[in-house]
Each structure stands twice: as C-alpha cells, then as structure tokens.
Amino acid sequence: MANIPLNLGNLTAVLGTQWGDEGKGKLIDILSEEFELVVRAAGGANAGHTIYLRDPVSPTTSKKFVFHLVPSGMLHKACVCLIGNGVVLHLPTLFEEIELLEKNNISTNGRILIADRTHLLFDYHKEIDAVQEERKGDKKVGTTKRGIGPCYMDKTSRMGIRIHELLNFAKFTAKYRQNLATLKDLYGEITYDTEKELSELKILAEKIKPMLVDGAHYLHTAYKNGRKILVEGANGSMLDVDHGTYPYVTSSNPTIGGISVGTGLPGRAFTSLVGIMKAYVTRVGSGPFPTELKDQLGEDIRQKGGEFGATTGRPRRCGWYDSVIGKYAVMLNGLTDINLTKLDVLTGLPTLKIATAYKYNDEILPSVPADLDIMENMEIEYIEMQGWTENIGDIRSFENLPQNAKNYVLKIEELIGCKISSIGVGMERDAMIFR
Ligand code: GDP
Ligand code: IMO
Ligand code: MG
Predict the structure, then answer these.
(1) Could you tell me which CATH class the domain 119-209 is placed in?
(2) How confident is the model at residue 279 (pLDDT cuts 50, 70, 90)?
(3) Does the active-site annotation cover 21?
(4) Model pLDDT, residue 244
(5) Omega before 92 cis (within 30°)?
(6) Alpha-carbon span 430 to 26, nearest angstrom
(7) Does 1 have pLDDT greater than 70?
(8) Atom of ligand 1 lying closest to residue 276 CA
(9) Is the Cβ–Cβ distance between 229 and 222 less than 8 Å?
C-alpha cells in the first residue's frame, strides 16, 4: 500500500472483537483510501460507525459522520460501496442516509450498490422488535429496536422478502400483505400505517433499480480483475448469535463466517483479517460483562471516551480490557492483525487492570463459557499494569509512546497471541500509530 503501512493484500475484512463500537468505522475510513470497494456483510441499522473528518480549511474542527447502513468508505470519492446479501435493509433509512451525505456534498451517485439477494426490513419488523422486548420484561435483550431480530426470523423461516422482489411490485405487495397477516396472528399488538409504507416503497422501488447487482458475482469479478476489496464488519464477536453471550446477542454472525455468507466471498480468498479491539471494553444493552466497572471509574471512562451509543445514544457500560474475550475473538475469526483503539482514553489512570483468566469452582476455564450462570458468577483473574500521564494524542510512532503505554500494548499482544499492527490515539483519521 502506498500510504498505509499495513500489508493487508487485496481482500481484507475489518471485524469487531468485543460487544461492538470498538472503532471499526475509523479504520475502515482510513483503509478505504486504498481499497476501491467497501462491502457491508451482515447486520443492519443497529450498527453505528463514526468517522470524524477534519475541516481542510480549519483543521482544529471536525465534522462527524455516523454510518448505519451505507458502508463507511463513502468519504473517499473513488470508493464504491456495496450492501451485501447478509444485511437486513430498511430502505427508507438507507435513503435518509444518502440524503444526509448529499447535503454534506458527498456525491453518492453510482457509488452505492445493493446485492439483489438482500432481505428487506420493514416498519413492522421494528414494531415486532419492540413487542418482543416488552414481552421479555426484565429478560429483555436491550436491542436497538431497529427490527433486526424479527427480520432475520423471517429470513430463516423462509418468509422473508428480498430486494429483487420489489421489481415486480404487485407480486411484492401481495407477499408483504400475506406476511403481515401471518405476523399479526403472532404479534396482534402491532399497529402502524401499512399503506404509507407501501406507497413509500413504491417510490423507492424505482430508485433502487440502477443500484441492484448480483452481489457475489460482482465481487468475484472485481476480485479477479485485481480490485482491492474491504469488507466492513458490523457489531462484534461477542454479539454473534452462535458464539456470543446468547441470548444477549444480535441475530446475525458478526464473526468471519457471517462475512463469507453475507458477501459470497469464500473464507480462503481473504488475504488478511483485522480485528478491532478497544483498549478497554464497552457494551450497550443487557447481558454479562465480566470486567464491567460499576463504580465512578466506569463513569469516568464513559465520559472521557464519549461512550454513548452512535445509534441509540444509550450510555455504554465500561470495563477493564478482557484478554479472555480478546483471545476468543482471535481464535474464532483467525485474525491476522489487531487495531487497538482508544488507548488515549486510558491516559491518566495510575494503574490499569487486564483480565487474564476466568475461574469457576477453583478451576481456570479454558475459554468463554456457554452457560451465562457461570459467566455471571465466575471469578476474574487480573494483572495490574502501571499507567501513564503523558498526552499521547499527537504521537505517531510506537517507539515514542510512554514506556508504560508500550508495556500495556505489548502485554495485550502477548496475552491474545496476535500482532497489534495499529493503535488508535484519537478520533480523527490521522490519529493512528502503525507498527
Ligand atoms: P464502531 O461501531 O466500531 O464503528 O464504533 P463507534 O463509532 O460506535 O464508536 C467508537 C467511538 O470511538 C467513535 O466515537 C469514534 O470516533 C471513537 N474512536 C475511534 N477510535 C478512537 C481512538 O483511537 N481514540 C478516541 N479517543 N476515540 C476513538
Ligand atoms: P456496531 O456495528 C453495539 C447490541 C444491542 C443489543 C444487542 C441486540 O456499531 O458496533 P439488535 O438491535 O442487534 O437486535 O440488538 O446487540 N448491538 C450493538 N451494540 N454496537 C453495535 O453495532 C451493535 N449492534 C447490536 O445493543 O445489546
Ligand atoms: Mg457503533
């Protein structure tokens, strides 16, 4: 790569390794300077990927962009973005995002493609999401209420509606009405304006025509022609419906399997896999969080790190770095590189703790347990590291970091067994150390 000193090859994926919000958007934006195609593979508008762009005229101020459905490569003019078949797509939300980009002088024309096998997410999925949460009472997942679970339910129960079906609007409408009737039998409470949604979709059905492609075929052709492809992971490994803290998870596979399924790109074609890992851990919503800090320190990290949801604005729970889940994510995804983010947020803490093992009934557990009762009641073993006080926001080489910051990074690398090849030291595009 010309400017980015990482040797990632032609096909890479960027994956969240914790409970989401690790800082995927920032690295994807940086890499899309050199990748020509950026592809979303799974999830939906539950994702919120933040990018800060310095104002070229007054570089002390930045503009904030949050991407939910549009892939995060859009801020680079030469980059084409594809919404892969594994995504659950709420079309009005996509077009709201497009409108916002256009308002900010980011031309989207011809730059956003949608795989024709992508499942559509409707307003009723959001309504059902809310009803399901309500019915769960104190066992609620704390979803983003973006309709993700109900849409994947329709997909796997084989009643989902794919975007290519909009091209025959009469047939589409009949299926939509039939689905709604079936769902009302199950969730009688849902009330919303069906006709309004249908008339909105009729307009959008025309707009999406030039955007539809056979996703897998398009990507394979691009790959054979030597175009560089970057797959943008959403959510995080611990939210994976199979490997995460089930049932407190999302309804897709944010891990590498979901990346392959959600794009049609086979696992063996990937030249590198970059895991994004916050230098501490956060989580939004319910579910176990072994290293959570429920005290003032957790609150201080939340304030300093700006840990409030990019999609829902909810305060994120904060805790110490957990190398057990770090190692788990490296194993599950076969990661080749780690981008450790938000190291700057830890500046000023006199000591830092790192979880090194989970212990239950006096025995060290081999990995992350499936049983949430064990996860809630196990003991956590920690090591303590010395902190640093120097401002690291302007440092751009690993050697120049304070010795204690270097020690902290090297200890994490040793514990998880994967190279930390980049380190985030601030929100902006240039606030990244490569090593
Ligand atoms: P994503 O969902 O993984 O893309 O992450 P989010 O955008 O939801 O949350 C990450 C937040 O951390 C965003 O506000 C980013 O701008 C910010 N961020 C990313 N990397 C860094 C970093 O290295 N330092 C600081 N201070 N902020 C960062
Ligand atoms: P990004 O891509 C953080 C969490 C929700 C909830 C659970 C299920 O920005 O990292 P869902 O709406 O998916 O049914 O909610 O998953 N969740 C996320 N948390 N970042 C995300 O995405 C998330 N996507 C889902 O908070 O606990
Ligand atoms: Mg996010």
Answers:
(1) mainly alpha
(2) very high
(3) yes
(4) 98
(5) no
(6) 10
(7) no
(8) 3
(9) yes
